[in-house]
Design goal:
This protein has 2 helices and 7 strands, in the order E-H-E-E-E-E-E-H-E. It is α+β, with helices and mostly antiparallel strands and 137 residues long. The protein has a single domain, classed as Hotdog Thioesterase (Thiol Ester Dehydrase, Chain A). The longest helix is centred in the first third of the chain and has 14 residues.
């Protein structure tokens, strides 16, 4: 199953060349990731931090009134990290393919932690087989 985030484009997202600036895509991915992670219950002193981003830019995205879809799914779950994959796209165009390695973090102890059983169950519901379809937010 995939999570879909409808991301609005802002005029300020464009650079001097008239397309969405490459660094802005990190913000788009962050918005989609926060929207996805907000679906599960939150523990006050537990959260996660980004360990790594990887982005492949496929096409220019220019400003327009319509939002762009960001499809997000869980690619891999390990004991103390998980990888989220994304496609920033319209029905017929993929603008960006990306992934983020996320590490669960105990903010009170200020150290990484293992993924809980509840988190593993939640994340496992979003592992993707491209043929399985998507669920809109």
């Amino acid at each position: 199953m995939r999570h879909i985030y409808r991301c609005p484009l802002r005029w300020s997202d464009m650079d001097a060349y008239g397309h969405v600036n490459n660094a802005i895509f990190l913000r788009y991915l962050e918005e989609a990731r926060i929207d996805f992670l907000s679906l599960r219950s939150k523990e006050s002193k537990q959260g996660s931090v980004v360990a790594r981003h990887e982005i492949d830019y496929k096409r220019q995205l220019v400003h327009r009134p319509a939002p762009v879809d960001i499809e997000l799914w869980v690619k891999e779950i390990k004991a103390a990290s998980f990888t989220v994959s994304y496609e920033v796209k319209d029905d017929d165009q993929v603008y960006v393919r990306a992934s983020t390695v996320i590490v669960p973090f105990d903010f009170e102890a200020q150290r990484p932690r293992r993924i809980t059983a509840e988190e593993r169950e939640f994340l496992g519901g979003y592992t993707d087989d491209a043929e399985e379809g998507a669920v809109a937010a």
